[in-house]
Amino acid sequence: MTSDVWLPIPPEEIEGLPAGPRYLFWDGGEDGDQPFPGDPADCAVYVVPYMKRLSVRVRPLERLTNVRVIQTLTAGVDDITARLPEIVPGVRLCNARGVHETSTAELALTLTLAALRGIPGFVRAQQQERWAAGFHQSLADKSVLIVGYGAIGAAIEDRLTPFEVARVARIARSQRTTARGLVHPITDVLSLLPDADVVILCTPLTEATRGFVDADFLARMKDGALLVNVARGAVVDTKALLAELERGRITAALDVTDPEPLPPGHPLWQAPGVLISPHVGGPSSAFLPRAKRLLVDQLTRFVNQEPLRNVILTTGSETPGSMGQ
Predict the structure, then answer these.
(1) Among the options 100, 136, 184, 279, which is catalytic?
(2) Lower CB density within 10 Å: C or N end of the chain?
(3) Cα 178–chain centre separation
(4) Which residues are CB-neighbours of 127 under 8 A, at least 6 positions away?
């Protein structure tokens, strides 16, 4: 039976790994051409390298003929689900739920506050040594709509609460009730948009959510509303968003774009009312300790043949969900 575990973090830096497997370090290398640490056919658990090019992350897939678990260190797994035909049947694909909630929720709140309070304008004025006083919007008393109310969406609401927002509405794939209140089904989204001052996107990218924020969605947003995207760029129709931004009807704060990276000369760079960060929701000092804890827990469960956490699908038998949890 195969027993190799490929880790993108040196195993000696992860305290508490269970005995039994042979732990091998592989993160693709600086140029993506790092030799495999062992025979891919002997790999039982493949932990996908974090923040590497797509070609690096998926490079071993076709050769992992006996793999039983693929563990990502990202909340989204669209890069792997797009290549399911390359993966042998019966593999459990797990995401990194529990790793990115803190960092991504912090950034969602940061982008929201920065956009509302005019921070980009202050930075530009400082560079020009110009005192640019003025009146700006507050997050207090605003109505917020969270689209994709899973673990990250809940973490965002946790951080919104002290800011005295008027109300928070929540959207997920299906209706349910949480300790904080009702979570609306996705079918309610168009009826909720006209009341939202701030719309925060944190849904995974699937075929159901690709282009979900289209011209109709954006047209339902109220005048002056702010769209915050910490999900995936392709959840939003970029052309439709540009049209609304250029009219000055809404504003946006985007950690993700489509295309990504956003190339020089793309009109989104210079669109009015947009704040762009370079997909930094996950990579922060909060990442590594949480990633290590997840890996120790998952691998202990794997060795002890206990149920794994965060199983998104099993290849050959399931399809992933579409809108939060």
Answers:
(1) 279
(2) N
(3) 22
(4) none
Q: pLDDT tens for residues 44-62? A: 999 999 999 999 999 999 9
Q: Which two tokens stand for residue 241?
A: 């968003």
| Token couple for 75 | 């909340």
CA distance 87 to 154: 32
Pairing of strands 43-47, 22-25: unpaired
In the numeric block, which tokens belong to residue 310? 């965060």
Q: Which residues contact 135 (CB under 8 A, 6 or more apart)?
A: none
CA–CA distances in Å: residue 114 to residues 153, 196, 292: 19, 18, 31
Residue 275, phi then psi, degrees to nearest 5: -115, 130
Q: Are 272 and 55 in contact (CB under 8 A)?
A: no
CB 204 within 8 A of CB 320: yes
What 8-state DSSP symbol labels residue 203? Answer: P
Rounded distance, CA 93 to CA 124, Å? 44
- Taking each helix axis from N to C terminus, what angle separates 101-117 and 151-160, rounded to the nearest 10 degrees? 50
> Can you read off the two tokens belonging to residue 182?
């009702």
C-alpha angle with apex 204: 198 to 206, nearest 5 degrees?
A: 125
Got the DSSP string for 25-73? E----SSS-PPPSS-GGGEEEEEPPSS--HHHHTTTGGG-TT--EEE-S
Question: Alpha-carbon distance 155 to 230, whole Å?
Answer: 13
- Beta carbons of 165 and 144 less than 8 angstroms apart: yes
99: nearest Cα among 293, 249, 305, 308:
293
Q: Which amino acid is at 177?
A: T
* Interval 188-242: pLDDT, tens: 999 999 999 999 999 999 999 999 999 999 999 999 999 999 999 999 999 999 9
